[in-house]
Design a protein that fits this description.
- This protein has eleven helices and twelve strands.
- The protein has 280 residues and is of the alpha/beta class.
- It has a six-stranded mixed beta sheet. A six-stranded parallel beta sheet has the order 9-8-7-10-11-12, with helices on both faces.
- Helix 1 (16-26) packs across helix 11 (264-279), helix 4 (101-111) crosses helix 5 and helix 4 (101-111) packs across helix 10.
- The longest helix is centred in the last third of the chain and has 16 residues, at 243-258.
- NADP nicotinamide-adenine-dinucleotide phosphate (NAP) binds at residues 101, 125-130, 149-151, 154, 171, 189-192, 194, 198-199, 219-221, 242, 245-246, 249.
Length: 280
């Protein structure tokens, strides 16, 4: 039996084992996927022993995504550009690092029937997730992506990666209102709205400025209907949470582990069913 896992600290709350084991079972593959607590100072030791312990790959969450970058033998282009690795394949004692967040986001938009080509996007946040998402939107043909962030410097730094497609702005209510006027997609990549520690939006007037039919996508998936989504729905705007992204980045990771293309829609359905079954 081949072994896969997700490493992190904390990691025991991760839904990756549930999602990945359901997909592996549906493919009738003899793999097992576990959650392994690996502290920050234990990462190097884990990397040295993983192959010998039978792991053929792993996912990574906090606090390892950035620390893995310099430790890879081969790094995929988007992982290098984002400075973040969330999927590692171990092949012939070599570590291959990937970032699947951006692709997961794009695939979830496709699944939701949202075409990005030609869209003007208002993107909130400039952290790790915002970087992966904004670069994929720019490369995927969005007409423009305005990145609004509390720390303007951080947005400016991100936007330099695709000048001409990404535009930096601040996070004041006035700026958000102005930028929303011609946006047909709003993506929340901040941690605002996250259960527990994330803080909350205090002003939703930017939603009133969005054109009719503009879609609102919140990267958060807990709670399943965030306050931003509730506010969007009350204004008749279609709203989506980040569960699709979570699922599709997992499908993309499994494609790397197995080194093969999978039927995204089928795998996504299997993962959703496993999550629903757990919640019922
Ligand atoms: P991160 O690197 O820590 O970035 C956090 C972002 O939120 C920064 O832009 C930060 O602004 C902004 N922010 C935090 N508190 C704020 C406040 N009070 N007011 C305004 N802005 C604030 O985190 P991340 O890894 O990018 O993740 C962002 C969110 O996406 C998290 O909630 C995470 O759970 C979610 N996510 C979901 C998926 C998925 O699969 N659905 C994948 C990845 C991430 P500053 O730069 O000013 O600090």
């Amino acid at each position: 039996m081949k072994k896969l896992c997700v490493i992190g600290d904390p990691v025991l709350h991760s839904r990756s084992p549930l999602i990945q084991n359901a997909m592996l079972r549906s493919l009738d593959l003899d793999y097992v996927y576990s959650a392994e607590t690996v502290r920050k100072d234990e990462l190097q030791d884990f990397l040295e022993k993983a192959g010998a312990e039978g792991f053929v790959g792993f996912n990574a969450t906090m606090p390892h995504k950035e620390s893995l970058v310099p430790r890879m033998d081969v790094l995929a282009e988007d992982a290098a550009e984002c400075g973040s690795v969330n999927t590692v394949c171990i092949r012939n004692d070599k570590l291959y690092g990937f970032s699947t967040d951006g692709t997961g986001f794009l695939r979830s938009l496709t699944e939701a029937g949202i075409e990005i080509s030609g869209r003007k996007v208002l993107l909130l946040g400039a952290g790790g997730a915002a970087k992966a998402v904004s670069l994929k939107l720019a490369d995927g043909g969005a007409a423009s992506v305005t990145v609004c962030n509390r720390t303007l410097d951080r947005a400016e730094q991100l936007c330099r990666l695709r000048s001409g497609a990404l535009y930096a702005a601040d996070f004041s209510p006035q700026t958000l209102l102005r930028c929303a006027r011609d946006a047909s997609l709003l993506v929340n990549c901040t941690s605002l709205g996250m259960l527990g520690t994330g803080g909350q939006f205090t002003d939703f007037s930017f939603l009133d400025a969005l054109p009719t039919g503009a879609a609102v996508y919140d990267l958060l998936y807990s709670p399943a209907e965030t306050l931003l989504m509730k506010q969007a729905i009350s204004r008749n705007l279609p709203a989506y949470n980040g569960l699709g992204m979570l699922i599709h980045q997992a499908v993309c990771a499994l494609e790397h582990f197995l080194d093969t293309q999978l039927d995204h829609r089928r795998m996504s359905a299997v993962a959703r069913q496993a999550l629903e079954h757990q919640n019922s």
